[in-house]
Request: fold
Amino acid sequence: MDPMNRPATTPEVSAWRAETPGSDRLVHLNNAGAALVPHQVADAVDAHLRLERELGGYEAADARREEIAAAHASVARVLGAPAASIAMVQNATLGFAHALQAFDFRPGDRILTSRADYVSNQIMYLSLGRRCGVEIVRAPDGPAGGTDPDAVRSLISRQRPTLVALTWVPTNSGLVQPVEAIGELCRAAEVPYLVDACQAAGQLPVDVTRLGCDYLTGTARKFLRGPRGVGFLYVSERALAAGAHPLLVDMRGATWSDPDDFTLVPDALRFESWEISHALVLGLGAAADYALKVGIETATHRARALAAYARARLSSVPGVRVLDRGPELCAIVTADLGVPADAVKTTLRARGINTSSAEREDAVIDMDEKGTASVLRISPHYYNTAEEIDIAVAAVGEAVTGNQETVNGER
Ligand SMILES: Cc1ncc(COP(=O)(O)O)c(C=O)c1O
Reply:
């Protein structure tokens, strides 16, 4: 396989890189952390900050009201959703928390989730357990890895969860969870379904109708290539019609209509907060437009091919163990290096190669199961090249050897 050639052509790659400041200086393989933004995104953010300086912050927001609404519509297009179903939020975790707040959890209620759900989501479930007596049920994995839909089917019918919550692509493994199959089960059983698409948006095609989800969260900064500090929450028409809203709704989401009453706004804006960076919202809109221009399927295929290439190359480095397993793998590559991954990440960064590392507490269940204390994560995107993977893997090999020699007292 030659990920340089399929399915995107070299002139396309050159064009994407020309539009990506930083790609000429850095080997940026940390798209699962925060991608390099195309200049169109940076321009949208900068233009609005400039306008705020020229007009004033509130006045600039009024002047760009239509463009801000258009940013909601652009994110909606990426998700196959109506614009009225999109709330802009300060980060994906807040969007997820707002979705959880739409439920009146009572002692004995159950949240059915996975063993690989995102760390902050797991902590929020546990906090609901502590404060509200919610029981957390984690569906077992299938033999090939990833949540087993048959187990979910049986747990739904036996345990009648109040909510099924699933992280589509866990942060520290290349796994892609069977979100669509589980969505079908939720719809059939009429159980609300919350999907964390933080690592999926921009990396994989998303269609909320096919997923059958009630809520879906994401961020700008990862595979969508938007700015840091902004994310989004999709809320289904079904949930909106049922009157869903976050427990702590503010004056963006509702009107204080009487001294003792409030009236919700009709659309997903009821999940937004009044104060947010409009520059970042506009940057997210520009990122969504850019992702659609590149083509999500093009991005998916090329990023996956580069990740598969990275897995193959990394596997040949002595002492390195690639950890990704599951029936479907994506553009996140994780490996145990036999030495602390954090130190290797830092060494690579000093050479202009960006990766990331995670510790046990970032994914307790997964890491314990794989018998590792830290992992290095390499996450290519479509604008990366096979040559960059070669550079990174060679540097990993040198860093691992260097680290082993230091540990063995040979230096
Ligand atoms: C799968 C997943 N969900 C949620 C988040 C949290 O996103 P944010 O930091 O924008 O709240 C992350 C961040 O890495 C993530 O990987």
User: Anything to note?
Assistant: Residues 214 and 238 are 7 Å apart (CA to CA). The domain at 41-293 is CATH 3.40.640.10 (Aspartate Aminotransferase; domain 2). The pocket of pyridoxal-5'-phosphate is lined by residues 91-93, 118, 120, 167, 171, 196, 198-199, 219, 231 (CB under 6 Å). The chain is about 45% helix and 15% strand.
